[in-house]
Amino acid sequence: MTITKTEIESDILPVVVRADWVRGAAQGHWNYAAYATLPDDGNRYEILDGVLLMTPSPSFEHQNANAMISHYLVGHVKLKGLGQVLAAPFDVELPSGDVVQPDVLVVLKEYEERITQSRLVGAPDLVVEIASPSTAGYDRSKKQAAYARAEVPEYWVVDTAAKTVELLVLQLATTTQPTEYQSQGVFRGKATLPSSLLTDFKVKVEQFFA
User: Fold this and answer.
1) How far apart are CA 12 and CA 94, in angstroms?
2) CATH code assigned at 108
3) 164: phi then psi, degrees, rounded to nearest 5
């Protein structure tokens, strides 16, 4: 049986890449002002450490989980008057100058002034990233480090293949350790998330993947 080039290429997943072909600032010098001039070409861009990156288009499973998580967070946060829930594509300009588009984010009521018509300026209170085989390394390394630098209190990493959510809570720097996330566990099925930010959030993890 002969395997064609097309069949091989279909088994190679897209990954997060440097968008070196995009005209604008030099790589390493991108900021929000330059980012705001990008044409709407259908691609999803982010800036980390001044480098413009392009992320892959989301899959059906990704979009389904995004919609379900947003739905339950809206019910728990927005409809109770506790804050705002926003979903990608919506820009977040972190204090470091990094520009990201979390899949879902929560801004509590006391920080709603950070939300402008074009973007969130500052750190969200919660970010949710729906990882895929092509973005998992990025979400758990560079992006996680950016959220830690911005002191985002809580970070959820969602795995649609395993149907799990890992809950990470920020631990601020001490004399013996840097500011970093500490995992509170990986949850699935009928487990609920022990969020320190969203008290009494009783949604079962399996409901995110329905």
Assistant:
1) 32
2) 3.90.1570.10
3) -130, 160
pLDDT lower than 50: segments of the chain:
1-9
- DSSP string covering 132-200: -TTTHHHHHTHHHHHHHHTT-SEEEEEETTTTEEEEEEEE---SSS-SEEEEEEEEETT-B---SSSTT
17 and 84 share one domain: no
Closest CA to 51 of 93, 19, 3: 19
Cα-Cα end-to-end distance for the chain: 38
Q: How many Å apart are CA 129 and CA 102, to the nearest integer?
A: 6
Report the alpha-carbon distance of residue 24 to residue 35 in Å, rounded: 8
**Alpha carbons 62 and 87: distance in angstroms, whole number:** 12
Flag whether 2 is in a domain.
no
Nearest in space to 194 (alpha carbons), one of 163, 161, 159, 154: 154
Shared domain check, 193 and 169:
yes
Helix or strand run (H / E) with residue 94: none
Which residue range is the domain that position 171 belongs to?
Answer: 60-209
The predicted-structure confidence for 107-158, as pLDDT tens digits, reads as follows 999 999 999 999 999 999 999 999 877 677 777 888 999 999 999 999 999 9
Whether residues 184 and 100 fall in one domain: yes
